[in-house]
Amino acid sequence: MSVAQVFQKFEQNFNPDAAEGMDLVFQFNIEDDQNYHLIIKDGTCKMVEGDHDDPSVTLIMDSATLNGIVSGETDGMQAFMSGQLRAEGDMMLATKLGQLFSLN
């Protein structure tokens, strides 16, 4: 799956109920592909190509790690602990991704 397809899947599998009252930006820096960010605001999700000026959290990984996490083959916490996934900003927000998106 291409990186663009992965982010389309994020949008398609968004759980608006879990995002009620939230105002967050998840920046994804994909080391070997295009960067994207997801804007979560009051039960809506918008995918945007490129970088955000002030993300809530930035997740840095390569496309293989992203695909593995989205497909369920790679555990996000395990990827973080092994250095395949790095986070900058409010790292606790990264744990909310599982609530906001049903990817598997």
Short structural summary:
By secondary structure, this protein is of the alpha+beta class.
Notes on the structure:
The chain has 104 residues and is of the alpha+beta class. 28% of the residues lie in helices and 28% in strands. It has 4 helices and 5 strands; from the N terminus they run H-E-E-E-E-H-H-E-H. Strand 2 and strand 3 form a beta hairpin. The two termini are 14 Å apart. The model has no long low-confidence stretch (mean pLDDT 93). This is SCP2 sterol-binding domain-containing protein. InterPro entries: SCP2_sterol-bd_dom, SCP2_sterol-bd_dom_sf. Pfam families: SCP2. It comes from Marinobacter lacisalsi.
Describe the SSE topology.
Blueprint: H1 3-12, E1 23-30, E2 36-41, E3 44-49, E4 57-61, H2 63-71, H3 76-81, E5 86-89, H4 97-100
Parallel strand pairs: 1-4
Antiparallel strand pairs: 1-2, 2-3, 4-5
